[in-house]
Amino acid sequence: MDPVIIVGAGPVGLTLALALARQEVPSVVLDEGPGKDEPRPARTVVLREDTAALLERLTGVALGDHGVRWTGWRSLRRKQVTSEIVLDGSEPAPLHIAQHLLMGFLRGAAAAEPLVNVAVDSRVDAIEQDRSGVTAHTRGPEGTWWRGSHLVGCDGPRSTVRKLQDIRFPGRTAVERHAVAALRAELPWEGQALLHRMPPWRQSPGPSAAEVTARPLPDGVWRLDWLLPPGKDLVTPEILLARIRETLAGWTDGSTPPYELLDTGVHTVHHRLARRWRAGRVFLAGDAAHLLGALGTHGLDEGLHDAENLAWKLATAWHHGPHEALLDSYQTERRAVVAARLRAADQVLPVLRGGGGLRHIVPGAARGHDALLADGHLGRGPLGAPGSYAGSPLAPPPSEAEIPVGTPPGARVTDVRVTAEDGTFVRLRDRLGRGALLVVLIAPGTGVWDRRHWVSAGVMPRLAAAVTALPHPAELLVAESYPGAPAHSVLLVRPDGYLVTALSGVRPADLYTAAEAALGGTVKEEAEAGSGAR
């Protein structure tokens, strides 16, 4: 069978290629560039814990050794500290890492993966699709036609794939602008990130900055972002240097400390959302499908979740034939999550950026504003919390056997220690992304028993038989405990780590029905959908 064609070799495209390879699906990645990335210290990414874990599984690199997990978050207004959050392990800390390092790890993993073929200097200029596959043409001295089972456009905001499919990309331009600098200096908050609103020293020439963010990187490097006022005022090197000096002086003893300027830039945030993310065998992901990033939210994080969501669905269709409802669910699930995040940002933006806002009429509103911004940067709350698929078309029908646990259906499962079928102890997260459904039995005490004593005892034989009978490959795991789950409950988890359902005991029929729903419907329904596939 033909490989999946991925247009674009950025973080999302390479993540998708590696995620497909993990599920034994070949891909060809069409990279319009030379296959190298220029080191730009001012271009960094902030990853939530689950996203960093996804990339570590795919690259085999401990990203924490190359970035910084913040130890805290500090919010200031004028000269006053309004809040301080300690990230001591009781809640996940974001990982801040230079994007060129992340790209190097992804490119290295792709080069070592036999199922991933990266074709450099390959710019797509035509796409054709039929009932059995899709064909893409790349320009060059010797124009090349590439044949694939499906095609995914991960080619950024100016996506050629999106334009060739005539998909609209409405939204707002220049929602926010930031002047950015990466520099090496000693600041008073080692390991902590900082948000300073309305700093008192705003005296430098050029457009004033009502907000400054400082985020640490390894080796004493910091990324500083100054929020610029609306408009297109030019940020000259002289203006930026003056802003650096006054900011560093304001944060220390009044005099500018020694610093080494490594990189600068201007970052413009747009908010856009493609009308469609699927056109037959062609899909959009990452910045080709959506742009976001105001108020501290992180667009790349969402793009990587696009890749994770789409990978197991494409792999299922590639290995097991037509699954049109399953493939349709990619757009339904991911577009809803991103749309909700954009709506939240658009609702909050006028309050936070609209001059007086609520702070003149609501006591304590300023602190509430700072808390909203902290949520966006820390990946929590209405602006930054991970999305869920509660309204997914893949949700199973209501069942009397379903029970509530600490994770609601459609949300990402908690990472707990589990025992695999061979008796080894592993993390639940490490079993994700292999294409199989995961069935987790909650059985207190099994962690201290030898596998041969419990694998054939109690409910295990009946559950093992039920797992074998499921309509899709599944792996049986055993956990001593899971938040909110009673003993002998059974969790069904999607390959991308989202909970399908939790059942009270071994219920083969209910387990089968839930697994069937998670795949988009019954075999008969899929056959009918496939006969009329687009």
How does the SSE layout of this entry go?
Layout: E1 4-7, H1 11-22, E2 27-30, E3 44-47, H2 49-59, E4 68-69, E5 72-77, E6 80-86, E7 95-98, H3 99-111, E8 116-119, E9 123-130, E10 133-139, E11 144-148, E12 151-153, H4 160-164, E13 171-185, E14 192-197, E15 211-216, E16 221-228, H5 237-251, E17 259-273, E18 278-279, E19 282-284, E20 290-291, H6 299-320, H7 324-353, H8 365-378, H9 381-384, E21 417-419, E22 425-427, E23 437-442, H10 451-454, H11 460-468, E24 474-479, E25 490-493, E26 499-503, H12 508-518, H13 523-531
Parallel strand pairs: 1-2, 1-12, 2-8, 5-14, 12-19, 23-24
Antiparallel strand pairs: 3-7, 4-7, 5-6, 9-10, 10-11, 13-16, 13-17, 14-15, 15-16, 17-20, 18-19, 21-22, 23-25, 25-26
Tell me what you see in this structure.
With 534 residues, the chain is an alpha+beta fold. The chain contains 13 helices and 26 strands. The chain has helices spanning 11-22, 49-59, 99-111, 160-164, 237-251, 299-320, 324-353, 365-378, 381-384, 451-454, 460-468, 508-518, 523-531, and strands at 4-7, 27-30, 44-47, 68-69, 72-77, 80-86, 95-98, 116-119, 123-130, 133-139, 144-148, 151-153, 171-185, 192-197, 211-216, 221-228, 259-273, 278-279, 282-284, 290-291, 417-419, 425-427, 437-442, 474-479, 490-493, 499-503. The chain has an eight-stranded mixed β-sheet with strand order 6-5-14-15-16-13-17-20, with helices on both faces. A six-stranded mixed β-sheet has the order 8-2-1-12-19-18. The chain has a four-stranded mixed β-sheet with strand order 24-23-25-26, covered by helices on one side. Strand 5 (72-77) and strand 6 form a beta hairpin. Helix 11 (460-468) runs parallel beside helix 12 (508-518). It starts with a strand and ends with a helix.
